[in-house]
Each structure stands twice: as C-alpha cells, then as structure tokens.
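Supplementary Note 3. Input sequence used for the single-chain structure prediction.
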Amino acid sequence: MQFRRFQSTLKLVSRCPPPKYDTGCTFCQPPPELDLKSPPFSIRNTAPPLAKHVIVLSETSNKDWPKKVEAYPVMRNLGAVGRGNGNLFSMSTLCPETETGHVEVLVYPDSKKVTFKDNSANYSKFVKAMDGELATNETLSVTAFEKPLILICGHAERDVRCGVVGELVHDEFEKVLHREKLNVELGYISHIGGHVYAGNVLIYKPNGTMVWYGMVRPQHVQGIVTKTVKADTLIEELLRN
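The predicted structure, written as discrete structure tokens, is reproduced below.
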C-alpha cells in the first residue's frame, strides 16, 4: 500500500499571494487570547503520510461533534476494522444523498463516493475493497466524485483554536468561492491532527491530488483559491504535506 505525502509534480511558490479584494472579513484575525503563534520552523511534512482518507458524509453540525467522533457508531465501526495501514477516517459536515440506514463516504486519493448498508459485515467488506480497485458490487455502490473538495478543521470540542480559526476561514472560503463562481464542495472536517497549525485546510481534487495546508487565515483564502483550487500550484509557507 502506497503512502502519500504530496504530488511532487505540482508547481511550488514560496509565499501566498495577497488578497485582491475585501469580502468584509478578509483581514479578520483570531482573537489574541487564543495565543496563536507561527512555529519557529517550517510546517512542511507535519501531516501524516496517508494511504487512504475516508470522509464520512453526515448531517451533523461540527458544533455538535463531541471531543472524540468515535462516539458515533459509524466512526467506531470504521475504525474497528480499518485503523492502521495509513488509513484516516474523518467526519464531515457534507450531507449524504442516501436514505437512512446507509453509510456514505468519500475515499481519497481514489476520488470515489461509496455507499453501503449500515451493518457490521459491510464495514469489513468496504475496508477490504479499499486495498484494491473500488468498484460497484453486491455490497458497495461506487461512483466518481468529480468536484474539487475543500475541508476545514472546525472541531471545536477537540481544540478551541480549530473551532474559532476554522469558522473564520470557512466563512471566507464561502464568500470567495461564491464570488469566483466556482463549483467546489466546501465543509468542515473533524480532528486531523495539528491543532497548533489551525486553520487546517484540506484540498482534494478529482485527479487524486491531496493538499494539506496549515496556519491558514482569511487573508490567505484568495491566494489558495487562485493558486491551488483553480490551478495546480502549492504554497510552500502553508504546506503541511
């Protein structure tokens, strides 16, 4: 199983371009009492190497997530059969399209949406299928997920820094994506590690590109959209993988 850090073929720029307009909170900063400080070292390679990232679609609000999302049966069941081997399982605020009684997830770098009935045997079958070529069978419904995806850690119960900074960054992405008329899926994700690097932003593309940024503030959002979402350029000062 291959562990991925980043797409080495992508272009790299050292600094994030400054914003060209103010959405109303482009220059908003987290409150000083959070005591957010840039680490005295590069944050490059502070993200874990991943084989697969499985993102659970749910109708829960990130503000309702407990400190450990393993309290949710779907997360507990996935972790029980799939933890290790470079797999990461996360909750998201992305809404599922299937009826109650089914599990719906996104799998990267495959860029696939997978749906299966919520029973214990099917969790094992899903995790086993991840090691090969994900395809529809008698247990799994598999389709390509063809939209760029932006997920922001907003897991406030795990760490208040992610809750506060994540909300500022999420709101700015929402405004910029709307203004730029981009068809991008945007949501919150549960704890991914690295509270000190809040705001943590993941950008996953249909071609399998997986980018982790840290220390993101609202003023970085336009530059990220221009360089990484619309193009295939990484911003070194924010790059965690």
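The chain has two domains: 11-29+43-47+147-238, 52-144. Residues 160-180 form the longest helix (21 residues).
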